[in-house]
């Protein structure tokens, strides 16, 4: 039985509402996204292929969609897209339709996958949400790049190893972070109590 006041991330009422918790989560994840994209070699890792960079900067957006819902996922993806545009070193990512628009869907997909699978198993839901959220980034960015004429169709297979690596990293981190967040929210981690709950200082 849950204690009064505890929240359960597997049961989020009013998914499209803007709450204080979601504003805080969105702010924190936006700050993390900005920081890791500004530090060279972390958010965007230079590699010699058509994308120019591998990235882990989409992971806060994935996490935002999972723990904060679609509103947080949308906002986090928007911030990621804007930072991608500002960081752009190749023409493809200087186009907002490539650098910003696809990123809006990362958190929405992560939220949708997690919401669909969480009743089966929370860990599995987080892993799949992380994997498919990352895949959304790759597929939509390259798809838009292809439609806009920046990406030759013949070169798309060269991105596959990068895409798989990013998706696996995203899946693993999503599972770890969501599990940790869930534990904290449910207050499952605490020292043995020798006093009544009302007498404890926490």
TrEMBL record:
Key words of the record: Membrane, Transmembrane, Transmembrane helix
GO molecular function term, any single one: transmembrane transporter activity
Classification via Pfam families: ECF_trnsprt
InterPro entries associated with the record: ECF_trnsprt_substrate-spec
TM annotation in the entry: 23-47, 59-88, 100-117, 124-147, 159-178
UniProt protein name: ECF transporter S component
């Amino acid at each position: 039985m849950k204690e009064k006041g505890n929240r359960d991330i597997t049961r989020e009422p009013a998914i499209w509402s803007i709450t204080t918790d979601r504003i805080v989560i969105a702010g924190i994840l936006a700050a993390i996204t900005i920081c890791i994209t500004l530090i060279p070699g972390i958010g965007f890792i230079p590699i010699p292929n058509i994308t120019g960079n591998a990235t882990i900067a989409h992971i806060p957006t994935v996490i935002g969609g999972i723990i904060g819902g679609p509103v947080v996922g949308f906002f986090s993806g928007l911030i990621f897209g804007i930072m991608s545009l500002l960081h752009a070193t190749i023409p493809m990512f200087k186009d907002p339709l490539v650098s910003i628009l696809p990123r809006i869907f990362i958190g929405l997909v992560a939220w949708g996958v997690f919401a669909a699978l969480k009743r089966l198993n929370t860990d599995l839901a987080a892993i799949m949400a992380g994997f498919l959220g990352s895949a959304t980034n790759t597929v939509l960015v390259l798809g838009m790049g292809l439609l806009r004429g920046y990406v030759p169709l013949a070169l798309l297979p060269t991105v596959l190893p990068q895409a798989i690596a990013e998706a696996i990293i995203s899946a693993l981190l999503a599972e770890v972070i969501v599990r940790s967040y869930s534990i904290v929210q449910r207050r499952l981690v605490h020292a043995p109590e020798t006093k009544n709950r009302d007498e404890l200082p926490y």
